[in-house]
Amino acid sequence: DAGSVGTGQRPLAQRIAAEGKPQLLSVAQFDRGSLEDLFHVADVMQPIARRQKVTRILEGAVLGSLFFEASTRTRVSFGAAFCRLGGTVCDTTGFTFSSMAKGESIYDTSRVMSGYVDALVVRHPEQGSVAEFARATNIPVINAGDGPGEHPSQAILDLYTIQREFSRMGKLVDGTHVAMVGDLKYGRTVHSLIRLLSLYRGLKFTLVAPPSLEMPAYLVELVARNGHVIEQTSSLAQGLRGADVVYATRVQKERFANGETLEGYTPEFQVCKALVDAACKPDTILMHPLPRDGRPGANDLSVDLNHDPRLAIFRQTDNGIPVRMALFAVLMGVEQQVARSMRDA
Ligand code: CP
Fold first, then answer.
1. Residues 93-121: pLDDT tens digits?
2. The three-state (H, E, C) secondary structure of the chain, written as one string
């Protein structure tokens, strides 16, 4: 029951607030306690996400969904999560169909939208842009990806998935070994996830990337300062060995600066069945934020792993609904009423 979450403490929305507002801009807003309290709220949402129970707790509320970059999962799952709480969604996708194409500023767009809707979910190609939306309004704003910056809701659902997979196996996140693979320079999901994982104790990270796509130094330093072991390699076979979690990412070519190339990124970088069978353990979890490039020869997570039980990618996407429902419930201050509001579907 989420009604018991945070008993004797300030509401979760206040504990994770950004600049005193109920907003989600960065995973840096969480400590381990607030993250685990959010996971309890997500657990309460599971029967609704699975269509066994229904709630109308957000009836009458309207979500503004502003996506200025391509998205399938994040846009649709945020919208579905809001609808499953009883709310409705108004959206605009791409610059072409927004008045930003006529030169309207982020400030004006955000002020106008906050007169129409009760919460905003925003994806935008510039790092820091969603924080700019948030500064212009007092309604809840959620960062659904700000260029190469962060993707906090993805990292939260990734860690929620790791916890659920580990719980099934009787394992803990503390002390685990996580291999992150691929484009660690521009992959915003790994930037957010490594920060969240570093809230736990005694992890080992193996960062597998070609030199041109390595994890930013400030994140490597942050993780090392928090007492975790961190190794970097460009050898995929070596990097996967012994890992409890392999988190693969797509090369974000759309973020390459002029003249940047895929130097050092060979076809052998593909995470495929033969490699996983040779290098991974029987209980290694294989994850990816998706989308993946499934074309033959692509340097990504291979489709030949689709029937391998270690592949958790669709359990990840399913968990996007309860986690995003939990975020809305917390930021809109109704998380303690959800359990009581539920009835059978
Ligand atoms: N993982 C993710 O952000 O997917 P979309 O780009 O489809 O939203």
1. 999 889 999 999 999 999 999 999 999 99
2. CHHHCCCCCCCHHHHCCECCECCECCHHHCCHHHHHHHHHHHHHHHHHHCCCEECCCCCCCEEEEEECCCCCHHHHHHHHHHHHCCCEEEEEECCCCCHHHHCCCHHHHHHHHHCCCCEEEEEECCCCHHHHHHHCCCCCEEEEEECCCCCHHHHHHHHHHHHHHHHHHCCCCCCCEEEEECCCCCCHHHHHHHHHHCCCCCCEEEEECCHHHCCCHHHHHHHHHCCCEEEEECCHHHHHCCCCEEEECCCCHHHCCCCCCCCCCCHHHCECHHHHHHHCCCCCEEECCCCCCCCCCCCCECHHHCCCCCECHHHHHHHHHHHHHHHHHHHCCCCCCHHHHCEEC
